[in-house]
Amino acid sequence: MKIVILPDARAVSCAVADIIVQEVRRNPQAVLGLATGRTMEAIYAELCARHKGGIAELSNISSFNLDEYVGLSEEDPRSYHYYMRENLFSTIGIEANKGRLPKGAAHDPEQAAAEYDVALAASGGVDMQLLGIGENGHIGFNEPLSGLSTRTRVVALAKATLEQNAKMFGGDYNNVPKQAITMGIGTILEARSILLVATGSAKARAVAQSVEGALSASMPGSALQLHAKCIVVLDQGAASELGQREASERP
Ligand SMILES: O=P(O)(O)OC[C@H]1O[C@](O)(CO)[C@@H](O)[C@@H]1O
């Protein structure tokens, strides 16, 4: 695991955009694994600016997003389909058949989840997976105690996650869908490279336990220790609990 610590969230967005642009320059048809959430908004804004400015050509990539809420239509402004169109796809010119997300509105979400894994495999797999992390350590919507070899599936969201994401749902966690389709931890680990991004001190505990703690299903982010090519990009806040354990306790 390579850890990069930068002064602030702005520097993080620029560095992450640099890494993604390098990947796409090397392989203009790269398959990217994409994430949603607040951390990613600044990164997508940076990528869109580079695309519009002619610095990066992103219209030939294809992508698979990590997750989507069950039961929200693709037109719902709170859905991740909508988020991706607004924050990235419409600017870089990616059609829906190339910018894929799990079909949370499907009549049979379990079936939709299984089909997503098939489509992912048929694409040749993810070249670079972009990941955020929840305050409870979730990656995708793999909540604590998710199995380390799980595949794309329907999951129940933890109360901490409902609360963390309530802002988009009128501030009341009761309004947040209780289930989502998410790539599994096993699915995520199959990406050829992984880029974990975290900003702000609210993520510091999850980051420290993921990077320096024991490999454990209670901290899904710790599964990234198993990946041979994982870069972790942090601002000072997210890095603030690193290095606090005795050297003898570290893995
Ligand atoms: O960046 P945020 O909003 O803190 O979210 C962290 C992660 O949790 C999720 O909301 C759940 O998948 C991701 O979209 C995101 O990467």
Automatic annotation (TrEMBL):
Its EC number is 3.5.99.6. One of its GO terms (cellular component) is cytoplasm. The keyword Hydrolase applies. InterPro entries: Glc/Gal-6P_isomerase, Glucosamine6P_isomerase, NagB/RpiA_transferase-like. Keywords: Carbohydrate metabolism, Hydrolase. It catalyses: alpha-D-glucosamine 6-phosphate + H2O = beta-D-fructose 6-phosphate + NH4(+). The active site is at 67 (proton acceptor), 136 (for ring-opening step), 138 (proton acceptor), 143 (for ring-opening step). The keyword Hydrolase applies. Belongs to the glucosamine/galactosamine-6-phosphate isomerase family. NagB subfamily. Catalyzes the reversible isomerization-deamination of glucosamine 6-phosphate (GlcN6P) to form fructose 6-phosphate (Fru6P) and ammonium ion. This is Glucosamine-6-phosphate deaminase. It comes from Neokomagataea tanensis. The lineage of its organism: Bacteria, Pseudomonadati, Pseudomonadota, Alphaproteobacteria, Acetobacterales.
